[in-house]
Structures are given as C-alpha cells and as structure tokens.
Design goal:
five-stranded mixed sheet, 31% strand, 3 helices, alpha+beta, globular, Alpha-Beta Plaits
Length: 117
C-alpha cells in the first residue's frame, strides 16, 4: 500500500473566509495543472463556513512531496488566515518531512483490498 492520504483541518480566522477561499481555489488550480500524482483533492466547509477540511490522496510519497513543493508558497499565507491541524495516513517513509506533532501520522492497520482482509 503506497498510497498516502491527508486530512487538513482549518479553523478560519474571523473576517478571512474570502481570503481562505481564494487561496483554496489557487491551490486547486495548481493541483489540476501541475500535480501528476494527486488522486483526490477535496475541500469541505461546515455549516457556517468557520471550519474547513481538505481531504487529499496521493499515488505515493513522491506524489505527496511533489504536491507540497507545488503549493509550498501558499502555506505561509494560509497559516495567517487559519489555524491548521492535520493527519497523514500511510506507511511511514524516510522521505516524510512531518513537523513536530503536526501533522500526526497514522499507519495502516486494516485495509479493504489488502492481503489478509
């Protein structure tokens, strides 16, 4: 199982929703035009649009690394408009560059379609 999945959770700062949506649209355009191994990239909002979740799936760790290289310049402005936490779901790799505590890494235990399920 090489696929990497990610869940990013954002609490949008008051008055920054339009900026956040603009930045998300920019990220989506980069994913559509430059990422070669992104399988899924979806953004969801709660009922009052104060929180958002981005769900991401990548072919493998190299595709995830490529994605973050492509959108890296958006991270500083994103963190100025939202408090972001997240999870990475996948098999650990020495290539993973996870911060100290965020995002949290969760490794596979039971997976439909894997041998032995």
């Amino acid at each position: 199982m090489d696929e990497i999945k990610g869940i990013a959770r954002a609490r949008i700062h008051p008055g920054r929703l339009d900026d956040y949506k603009r930045l998300c649209a920019e990220a989506m355009e980069i994913v559509r035009t430059r990422d070669r191994g992104t399988l899924q990239y979806e953004i969801y909002f709660n009922h009052d649009e104060t929180e958002a979740i981005t769900f991401e799936r990548y072919r493998d760790i190299d595709a995830a690394i490529e994605h973050f290289a492509n959108i890296g310049h958006l991270m500083e402005p994103l963190l100025a408009m939202a408090t972001v936490t997240g999870e990475v779901l996948g098999t650990p790799s020495p290539k993973m560059q996870l911060g100290d505590g965020e995002p949290k890494l969760f490794t596979p235990w039971l997976v439909l379609g894997e041998p032995g399920d």
